[in-house]
Amino acid sequence: MPSSSPSRVSVSQLKPRLLLGPGPSPVSGRVLRALAHPTLGHLDPQFLTLLDDVSLRLRGIFGTGNEATLAVSGTGSAGMQAALANLLQPGDTAIVGIHGYFGGRMAEMARRLGAGVVAVEAEWGRVLEPERLIDAHRAHPRARLLSVVHAETSTGVRQPIREVGAYLSGTETLFVVDAVTSLGGIPVGVDAVGIDVCYSATQKCLGAPPGLAPISLSSRAVDVVRRRKVPVSSWYLDVGLLMDYLGAGHVYHHTASSNLFFALHEALQEIEEEGLEARHDRHRRVGARLRLELGARGFTLFGDPGHQLPELTSVRLPDGADAVRLRHALLERYGIEVGGGLGPTGASVWRIGLMGNGASEASVERLVGAVDELGIGSV
Amino acid sequence: MPSSSPSRVSVSQLKPRLLLGPGPSPVSGRVLRALAHPTLGHLDPQFLTLLDDVSLRLRGIFGTGNEATLAVSGTGSAGMQAALANLLQPGDTAIVGIHGYFGGRMAEMARRLGAGVVAVEAEWGRVLEPERLIDAHRAHPRARLLSVVHAETSTGVRQPIREVGAYLSGTETLFVVDAVTSLGGIPVGVDAVGIDVCYSATQKCLGAPPGLAPISLSSRAVDVVRRRKVPVSSWYLDVGLLMDYLGAGHVYHHTASSNLFFALHEALQEIEEEGLEARHDRHRRVGARLRLELGARGFTLFGDPGHQLPELTSVRLPDGADAVRLRHALLERYGIEVGGGLGPTGASVWRIGLMGNGASEASVERLVGAVDELGIGSV
Prior knowledge:
The structure is a homodimer. Chain A is of the alpha/beta class.
């Protein structure tokens, strides 16, 4: 909070940026126009129909038939909070894979909810070997859940989830997958993988503005929520109440932001028109091009090249280049946003997101052009 | 969630409504344009300056010098959740005034957080006599907080807060006031009244779309949060972490929705241009006109006329009129949204909001014209 009068700003004078950081990603003009459609009431029959349609489209992208598929009124972190707050009761055991910043956040949330956390850790930039997660479960077979981050936004690494999903489906432990940076960019496949709770965010590969967190719960996850002995400590994120409102009954719970749902609906429509496979292909193709261009300029991948995400690339700059100073120059002189590091990667890496509408050849060319003009990697 | 394919909808084809219900209120074209300004990153220096400016302007409207004045990334209910989750620890006592739906919600949230709730109840439509709240505190002098709803959206009643604020300032109990439907419509006066935690929502008298919850904490409330023995169970709504991000340090916490903040900033700018006192006058004048017109048509106030809110009027329809059917007719035939009742008022009342941009003579005339055409109250 400012302690003295800040410089007064006007929204119309804010300079636009090319958003190539770890999210938000660029929002299309069409989605922005939908966002600005006149606000509707949260119980207007037109809006309730739109909510149903959002749920249906989200199921398609999650790859699930889960009835409990909805969007929580908060950002991606609210999705994580909702997943854990609904499943965990004090005294439960949570096995949490940590191979980057967001795994650490999950462990912190689980602890605050009174769970005993079994942390399975890997170095930042590596994946968690599925066998290690499975071994942790063998040691803690009564764990309420096992969670991993599918696309670690802090490192750019893609976590394998298939083996763990297949293994856990034969147990009573729920599989929780953070798909914040994966949904819409790479296949998630909730039902095929056997994920019980999967959550995401609107402002990454889905191409909508931030503010909503899509989430999907399997029927066995819903059963766990319904059979809780103590109510969910957060009334706001109680999935039972959310299902009563966002679901078929439409019982008033909170004032869902119609404008954010308009934008999400339009973004989901764009995805449907492109086709999900074509969208995944586009992310793969453009990400590969970026890494080729950066490699030619002396940038090196931060994470395991064998498990690199298409949509989020974490790179060390060529020797001698000041990652922080150059990131600011990129923003100020070229209007291009890339992300800095988090935690141990803080001052030494750039995190470059080519997500949603940002996943284009034009983005790569504009970024690489600026990199060249800034003289990074030139000899 | 839909069990079969819902009718496909397109955002551009949604019919606009005149929003005269209990919120959201009509959003001006100027604020909608700000909402649709191209998305910025949550750590962009331009956006951080805007956040500071939003905090400064909110302080003016709350009537406070509180440094901890910010907007939570969720709806008004998230503001309530944040207020209670940060102040209450398991075993604490919370004195909760209940004279309508939202007081009941506060009690429910407090219980879920492990607090012992001392409910001070009054009939829906009445106010809570300040002396009764003070007596409850005398019986529970070690209560962590005492909370009331300033503007009960379920009944249209304005709760007196001055006496309780003055009394509690000499105690260790924190005064929590729900200003969801009051902020921007009637004076709140956080510092003058002695409120420790006050929260609101953007979509009522502030005139912005839903999605953010302004909140302000006194330094003694912040001390209580900082001295907690157990961390806040909700990482997402932890005020300490939110202050580190939204405050001067700007440490990453979550991806605040720049678009929602653009809209809030523009709405706060509109309020500054109108002047807060002039805005309160407008709400008072237009609300009085509405009640005059409705009274002449045989509508009767649901709540205590001596404590009627200007901005939210709960009325019973003239004898024989079917409140539910006519409310749907108003929406479908005239494009005007008014609210139905909640709880005991369910099928018998309309809740009419004249809030923010909706508080105009034109709104009253359009509503009354439709009421007349529908033949309500004619003999």
